[in-house]
Specification:
The protein is an alpha+beta fold. Helices cover 56% and strands 15% of the residues. The strands form two sheets. Strands 1-4-5-6-7-8 form a six-stranded mixed sheet, sandwiched between helices.
Length: 266
């Protein structure tokens, strides 16, 4: 899904080992938030590949105050980073502050970190403003030989930013998740297939699609994938995809139909 350049993976082992040791030390000593910001800047440069002097700034003013860090590439702010002290556990109050920053400036990607734990969020601009958790990891727990851990780290890299890795990954998890899969299972195609398979095994048994749907809703699928905002999002996403695919197919069919006419004209 995401191709990680060798030069990126090659720089990780030494940089991660060195800076994780510093972060753990900072947590033990309960250093100040300002010291953690300095450490995070070093991490963004040495682990994630940003230019510490030209692409990282702590002078981004929002609503009369300054956010902790902003990643600015080619003159445009791409990520806002809210930093808390290494010994401080991240919580929703910290997140709300960062989300408010991003929503006010139209910046969709937010990172919340205490140098050890890193969380990536995407703002959903609307009324009201909402957000989605996209990825998170604890830096000391990462296995740099594990592909999933590599992807999580790459999302925040300079090289990942220039290839829209965050957007690609977000789109992937937005589609391939338990809510979307549950809606696909409940669709006519899958329930119809289940009915045919059941009748193939038990030809004398009368089975209705409605009975299969009831079983899926009430006894097989968990309630969390059947109700709530994420379920509605999955339904809307599938509906839009079906409409888009139908239009594309209609356009393709129209083009095929017009080909003989064009040949006859010639």
């Amino acid at each position: 899904m995401l191709k990680i350049p060798k030069k990126v993976s090659d720089r990780w082992p030494a940089a991660v080992k060195n800076l994780v040791g510093v972060a753990v030390s900072h947590k033990t000593k309960d250093v100040s938030e300002a010291d953690t910001v300095t450490l995070v800047k070093d991490m963004l440069a040495e682990i994630f590949g940003f230019d510490k002097y030209n692409e990282l700034t702590s002078e981004q003013q929002i609503r009369g105050t300054f956010c902790d860090l902003a990643v600015k590439v080619e003159g445009k702010i791409r990520i806002l980073i809210e930093v808390k002290a290494a010994a401080l556990a991240l919580n929703d109050n910290h997140l709300r502050q960062a989300i408010n920053y991003g929503a006010h400036e139209g910046i969709e990607w937010i990172v919340l970190t205490n140098s050890l734990e890193w969380r990536l969020y995407k703002i959903k601009f609307g009324q009201p403003v909402d957000y989605e958790h996209v990825s998170s990891f604890c830096l000391p727990d990462l296995n740099l030989k594990n592909e999933d851990d590599q992807r999580k780290l790459f999302l925040l890299c300079r090289e990942g930013l220039t290839t829209d890795a965050m957007g690609v990954y977000h789109q992937h998890i937005s589609v391939l998740n338990k809510f979307t899969v549950a809606q696909v299972i409940l669709g006519e195609t899958v329930t119809g297939t289940i009915r045919r398979e059941m009748r193939r095994y038990f030809p004398d048994l009368k089975i209705e699609v409605e009975s299969i749907t009831d079983l899926l809703n009430n006894e097989i699928l968990k309630r969390e994938v059947l109700d709530g905002d994420k379920v509605k999002d999955a339904q809307q996403r599938l509906k839009k995809a079906a409409t888009r695919n139908a239009k594309a197919q209609q356009k393709k069919d129209s083009a095929k139909t017009s080909e003989p006419d064009a040949a006859a004209t010639e």
